[in-house]
UniProtKB/TrEMBL annotation:
Interacts with UvrB in an incision complex. Residues 10-89 form the GIY-YIG domain. Residues 249-475 form the UvrC family homology region profile domain. This is UvrABC system protein C. GO terms for cellular component: cytoplasm; excinuclease repair complex. Keywords: Cytoplasm, DNA damage, DNA excision, DNA repair, Excision nuclease, SOS response. It is found in: Cytoplasm. The gene is uvrC. Belongs to the UvrC family.
Amino acid sequence: MVPDLSKIPDSPGVYLMKDSSGVIIYVGKAKSLIKRVRSYFQSSANQTPKTRVLVRQIDDIEFIVTDTEIDALVLEANLIKKYKPRYNVRLKDDKRYPYVKVTTNERFPRIFLTRRRRMDNALYFGPYTNSRAIRSTLEVISKLFLLRRCRKPVVPGKSRPCLNYHIKRCIAPCKASIDEEEYNRRVMKAVRFLKGDTAGLLKELEERMQSLAEDQEYEAAAEVRDQIEGLRCLTEQQIATSGIEDRDVIAAVADGSTVYLQIFYIRHGSMVGKADFRLEDSGNAEIPAALAAFIKQYYQDSPIPPEILVQEEVLEKELISGWLGQRSGREIKLQVPYRTEKKKIMEMCLRNAEMAMRISRLEKGLSEASLIALNELKDVLSLEKLPQHIEGFDISNISGTNAVGSMVVFKDGLPARDGYRQHNIRTVKGIDDFAMMAEVVQRRYSRLIKEDSPMPDLILIDGGPGQVGAAKSSLDSLGLDIPLIGLAKRFEHIITPNKGSDEVIILPKTSPALKLLMRVRDEAHRFAVTSHRRRRSATLTHSQLDAIPGIGPGKKKLLIEHFGSVENMRSATPEQLMEVKGVSKKIAERIQEHLGGGSSVDADSG
């Protein structure tokens, strides 16, 4: 089975091939991602046996867009080092960065360094690029919390403690010197410290020390005091050993109320991976606010690097920076890059966020043509977001009779017929298209307000300044500020309300945005005319047939289908009326009498 390749762009970058379990099995680079990836799924005649085996294993393909092929080459090397894919050629001297492992998947958890991260439900922190610093950290943690690091099975009260107990590096749960609940409290304190919550942990320890001192438990208070001093010492060491070579790069793009975010992970000066996120229901999705919301959520339980790069200044920057500093126990730089090197990586991150948004649109069924038209429409009308939800209105009547207002819905540039609505005009008598338009718009959006339903991104009126002004007055009376335009039929000019001399926008006939508006306007007109004809026919039929006793909906339908119109029934003979199933001699006489038609049925007939 060939994976979906429609999302892959014609750009330089790196592709990551995964098997059915989601494991990365191959990482490659390309000047054109789509051309290179497609080549794997063409004729296998010229492929090596290894490549043919690889292709059979591919279940999914991810990619990262880069500026140049050189950037792709560097990134490819970093990702091969990180993931060690099965089908890549790898250097034997490749090293793994260490993790801190806390075996929360077993009783009396251990804490130690490891260079392999397994799917075993344990907690892992890292990877750490400075092995010396993290080893020093573990030494201090051992002194502070006395957690075990050996592999010896724990059988409380039945085992002899090892050397770590005698040199005061372990509290020896094997000796039954501590119960499991108290031991686990120590474990969670160590976990909080590794997550960066040094400030919260210090405060908790200080309160405990004070409480113990007040209870005159001076020996226990002195032990907690030593833990506090050790934590403060370790925090100072972390600040001294942390360079600016570790950083996260965050870029975001908005699409309506959804924000797509991309994070690049830079470790030891090299990019080692990326992650995609999205924020839903973000209102107007302003980037500074979205970045602030994301940072506050993401870094609740994620490692905090000493530097975080963002594309724009975030809201509440000082407050968030202070919070990050408290969590990590060191100063965190939260800044917009201006230097060439950092700015370049930010631009690459931003392009990948835009690509993620583009893929999401395609997955939602938004065609390339619709995307082009909607983007142009957004720019032409200076809209805050892409007009993916458009509602179009038109009025149809003959000399003011049987007036109908239609409302059609377009989503992602295509008709959404389940959202179409017909409004029979109630309050307007005679010919007054402006008042009719005002009534229909008022009824539509007052209902949406009452139902607390989402409003459209754009309203299109079939008509000129008069109809547009009437619709605008209805929106104003409801306190709504929805983008509103009209499209005049004669010259296909876009009418905007309250724009003075700039009231008309003229687009070329080849404009995708204009063509989309014309489709919405024409569909609203078609639906209005169809609704008007249906209502006029129903009114006519009702006024002539529904008043006749004995004729229900079924017989009425059969009569209309048989004769075609009430006029033909009026000129029909009784015998012809009785040809319709269910029409008796008595009913035929009633029809004749009511419609004032031909001669009645003789008493002796049939």
